[in-house]
Design goal:
Layout: H1 2-23, E1 32-36, E2 47-48, E3 52-56, E4 69-72, E5 77-79, E6 95-101, E7 108-116, E8 123-124, E9 128-131, E10 138-143, E11 149-152, H2 157-160, H3 165-174, E12 189-192, E13 198-201, E14 207-211, E15 214-215, E16 220-224, E17 226-227, H4 229-234, E18 239-240, E19 243-245, E20 247-249, H5 258-261, E21 262-264, E22 266-267, E23 272-282, E24 287-288, E25 303-310, E26 318-319, E27 332-337, E28 352-357, H6 369-373, E29 377-384, E30 394-395, E31 399-409
Parallel strand pairs: 3-7
Antiparallel strand pairs: 1-4, 2-3, 5-6, 6-7, 8-31, 9-10, 10-11, 12-16, 13-14, 14-15, 16-31, 17-18, 19-29, 20-21, 21-26, 22-29, 23-28, 23-31, 24-30, 25-27, 25-29
Length: 410
């Protein structure tokens, strides 16, 4: 009897386990994890964001017959197929759209895979601003005079979605029937456009800002330190500083490792010597610490700096911890840091011009011309409305406007 009992129990257990395996829900994720192009043409590893893949290739690469390969989330499929030959040369913006479908077939995501052959700009115009696929926050791009894509800026806007404060503010300002087209106005990083600018959605469901039949040129970029509301209080991130930078923002680690999620650096083929531009700034009324406590007598201030560093197999980006390590990092080559930032007000006559030299003496490293040509060196321009915002210290309402950002090269 004892043997029979054990046999029945074991059999039942096996059947139960088998049933669990059979009934296990199929994966609902539909993401691109990695993307590979021929190594001989690639300048740097592809940058993958929520709905975009950007790869920089050498200027003389033949991009008419490329067959990128992809690693996807478990069970997902992709169309066009991974490894299939695509003509990026004749595609609009050298971009091919790929659709990833989840294992359960219920979820889809379209990625815009773009090949960039142009060298990075030295003058930054933010001249194509579009909304993310959910039409909530702004994404900032640089295009050359011929309409060729050069680079995409990053910001913390994707992370601000989690707190829901922009939706609340837009609804309060515009009403429940009209607020959805205005949510982007209440994110920490946005563009201010000339009068007459409207939004237009193209056949790929990309919404851009247009004026006079072409992409609207922002008058300036506005960075605002905003409250993260109840969500921020729960996760001990009471504010979100407006920021814009060259590099990438890892949304997946934004809550658990916020400073590591903010990664600086774009391949750069020149030796920078100066960073210049214009700003105006008004500090928010009440400075709070990382726990949301008021710090009496403390005044908020912004930050503008640029790092120039050498990438290698282990270091593709340098995260925002470098700011608090006195900009020391083994890969650093030069630094341009605005050290005399001050409050100006936000009037038409309050704009201040700045010009900062890149300091190479701090790191005592020579720039290798061969590595420069190969895109091994990276530049990361970083601008934030609260200098200590990545530690969630600052003042809600601090507002920094910037324009005419330029890098002068040797």
């Amino acid at each position: 009897m004892n043997f029979v009992y054990k046999t029945v129990v074991v059999a039942a257990t096996v059947l139960a386990a088998t049933s669990c395996i059979q009934d296990e829900a199929l994966n609902t994720e539909c993401d691109i994890i990695t993307c590979s192009f021929p190594s001989e043409i690639v300048v740097s590893d592809p940058t993958i964001t929520n709905n975009r893949v950007t790869v920089n290739v050498v200027p003389d690469a033949d991009i008419s017959k490329l067959a990128p390969t992809f690693t996807l989330t478990e069970g997902a499929t992709i169309s066009p197929a991974s490894g299939s030959v695509q003509n990026f040369l004749n595609a609009d913006d050298h971009t091919v759209n790929y659709t990833v479908t989840s294992q359960d077939g219920e979820w889809h995501k379209t990625y815009r895979v773009q090949v960039v052959q142009q060298l990075k700009p030295s003058e930054y115009l933010f001249n194509k601003v579009e909304l993310d696929p959910t039409k909530k926050y702004s994404i900032f791009n640089e295009y050359d005079e011929n309409g060729n894509f050069l680079m995409a800026w990053s910001s913390g806007n994707p992370g601000y979605v989690m707190c829901g404060e922009a939706n609340k503010a837009a609804r309060a300002a515009y009403g429940k029937d009209n607020y959805k087209d205005h949510i982007w106005e209440f994110f920490p990083t946005l563009a201010v456009f000339p009068e007459g600018t409207t939004m237009k959605t193209d056949n790929d469901n990309v919404t851009s800002f247009v004026n006079g039949g072409k992409y609207a040129q922002p008058e300036y970029i506005r960075l605002v330190t905003r409250s993260t509301g109840g969500f921020g209080a729960q996760v001990k991130m009471p504010i979100a500083a407006g920021n814009i930078f060259q590099g990438e923002f890892d949304l997946g680690s934004a809550v658990s490792q916020p400073r590591e999620a903010t990664r600086f650096g774009e391949p750069y083929n020149y030796k920078p010597v100066k960073l210049s531009g214009e700003y105006r700034f008004k500090a928010g009324d009440v400075f709070t610490d990382g726990k949301g406590n008021v710090v009496v007598g403390r005044k908020d201030i912004f930050s503008i700096y640029a790092i120039f560093f050498e990438s290698d197999d282990d270091v593709k980006f340098i995260d925002s911890n470098v700011h608090y390590n006195d900009f020391m990092h083994p890969n650093m080559v030069a630094l341009a840091n605005l050290t005399d930032a001050h409050e100006t007000g936000l009037g038409d006559d309050d704009w201040v011009k700045f010009e900062i030299e890149f300091d190479y003496d701090k790191y005592k490293k020579a720039v290798n011309a061969d590595l420069l040509a190969k895109g091994v060196y990276r530049l990361g321009i970083v601008i934030a409305s609260s200098a200590e915002g990545d530690y969630f210290r600052g003042a809600v309402g601090s507002t920094l406007d910037v324009r005419n950002i330029k890098v002068t090269n040797e």
